[in-house]
């Protein structure tokens, strides 16, 4: 779901505030994608990935690429976090030829009165968020081999909550996947689980200097992504 995204979008407001250089090109599993560069506040900018606006061909590429990485692990089911992890979970499931998938919700839907709940301990947001698992979905996870997917792993707080929730439901987490990682703080947040991360690309974080978004050197990728030869 990209922790803090709601706040990011509220901060940005409408119309979107593009800041120079206006776009950041990122390689997503061999496909160069231009992300709009948006000003967050006086000091920070973000290269924004809105997977729900990227079209079906992009979803198919992401789903196939993540599924290729997961196939050898023989997962029984894919779990995705609302909101922007939902299409990722569907596209990965389709490519793994798995019919059912499980979505972790952010807000209590009326049918989720008695959901399993995990707090999302974000270091960047004051607002306490949470992830919810409908108890009726537990049989899909109990004793199962699971992969968890999201659009972006940034702070790692959301993915870490998703892993706790899925493990509480009795599943084995084989791997986690995202379209992008952003910055490096997720490594600390996920601790020993950081090694389970499959990502198709990486974006840095940006500071605004002299009216331009500049890469924060601490946020570039520490371990370059291994790409399959095309
Ligand atoms: N750059 C980004 N794009 C979309 N969602 C995000 N969540 C956190 N960072 C994000």
TrEMBL record:
Pfam families recorded: Pribosyltran
UniProt-listed InterPro entries: PRTase-like, PRTase_dom
Taxonomy, superkingdom: Bacteria
Assigned keywords, A-Z: Glycosyltransferase, Transferase
Domain Phosphoribosyltransferase intervals: 59-188
One GO MF term: glycosyltransferase activity
PANTHER family: PHOSPHORIBOSYLTRANSFERASE, PHOSPHORIBOSYLTRANSFERASE-RELATED
Protein name as annotated: Adenine phosphoribosyltransferase
Species the sequence originates in: Pontivivens marinum
């Amino acid at each position: 779901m990209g922790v803090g995204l709601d706040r990011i979008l509220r901060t940005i407001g409408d119309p979107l505030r593009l800041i120079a250089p206006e776009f950041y090109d990122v390689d997503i599993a061999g496909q160069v994608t231009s992300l709009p560069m948006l000003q967050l506040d006086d000091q920070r900018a973000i290269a924004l990935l809105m997977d729900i606006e990227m079209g079906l061909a992009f979803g198919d590429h992401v789903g196939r690429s993540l599924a290729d990485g997961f196939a050898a692990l023989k997962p029984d089911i894919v779990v995705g976090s609302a909101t922007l992890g939902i299409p990722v979970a569907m596209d990965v499931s389709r490519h793994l030829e798995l019919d059912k998938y499980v979505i972790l919700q952010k807000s209590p839907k009326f049918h989720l009165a008695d959901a399993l709940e995990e707090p999302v301990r974000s270091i960047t947001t004051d607002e306490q968020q949470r992830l919810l698992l409908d108890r009726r979905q537990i049989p899909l996870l109990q004793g199962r081999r699971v992969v968890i997917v999201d659009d972006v792993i940034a702070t790692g707080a959301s993915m870490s909550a998703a892993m706790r929730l899925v493990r509480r439901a009795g599943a084995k987490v084989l791997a986690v996947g995202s379209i992008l990682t952003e910055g490096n703080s997720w490594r600390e947040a996920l601790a020993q689980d950081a090694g389970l991360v499959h990502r198709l690309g990486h974006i840095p974080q940006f500071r605004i200097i002299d009216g331009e978004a500049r890469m924060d050197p601490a946020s570039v990728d520490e371990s370059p992504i291994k790409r399959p030869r095309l």
